[in-house]
Amino acid sequence: MASKFGLALTAFKQKGFFRRIPDIIRMAKAIMKKEYKPKYKNIIIPVLVLVYIISPLDIIPDWIPLIGEVDDIALIAMVLPLLMKETERFLEWEKSRHIEDAEIVE
Asked: What is the pTM of this model?
């Protein structure tokens, strides 16, 4: 059976997560600087799921064949779209901000 890490890695790859990591880091910095205001459910829920997956405590223990890891993968599959949607919102905000900051040359 594949490890929890391997299954999570597969889920991340399928959702295009890895190519968005630099965008997510920029988004986190903008949030911390209070420059960008996200929809908090799109940020808090993925963070809570990440904490759940990393923690040794599980609602369904991983030692139960197949079912033990399915809950983790299901959670990842549910929250990645939230995080990706918020990342897209951030990129749109970033574009609009660059347009506003642009200087008109005549």
From this structure: 0.70
